[in-house]
Amino acid sequence: MKKLDRRFFAILGQSKDKELNGVKRMRLMVFLKCVGIAGLIVLLTACGMFGGGQSDKTKGADPNKQKAQSTAKPSIIDQELHKQYNIYKEIIQYQIEQDKKAIKQTEERNKKMKEQSEKQSSPSPSPSASPSPSASPKASSKPSSKKQGGGKSES
């Protein structure tokens, strides 16, 4: 005890050889107790704020329980979100189907247009077999009327 008292008084700047009376000794002991208690309080609050070992164990167990509960009973919000997501998927699927139909229709139109243009550009076997001049003007007048009629119906 005397060694401890002498060290603290040495730190405070007093000589080691000085004898301490009871009052000074009591004050020193009270001061040391207060410092110790304050240190423990600071340590406990720091552990409480930054998480202790026991709270980590309970945190690890809670998410498992929450997952089990969430899978058992989905909340109303989750149900609504799931319904809306399914509706969204159906809308996207419908749009994809409509796009495919539109692509098929345009391909069919292109094929028909190509067939018509091939028929118009290639001479028919009957006009080439008959060398009469009256047959050839009829063939040339038909494509021009089709082009004019086709142009009017498209616009």
From TrEMBL:
Region (Disordered): 53-76, 103-155
Biased segments, Basic and acidic residues type: 56-65, 103-118
Transmembrane portions of the chain: 30-51
UniProt entry tagged with the keyword Secreted: no
Coiled-coil stretches noted in the UniProt entry, renumbered to this chain: none
Low complexity biased stretches: 131-147
Entry keyword set: Membrane, Transmembrane, Transmembrane helix
Protein name: Lipoprotein
Species this protein is from: Paenibacillus aestuarii
Lineage of producing organism: Bacteria, Bacillati, Bacillota, Bacilli, Bacillales
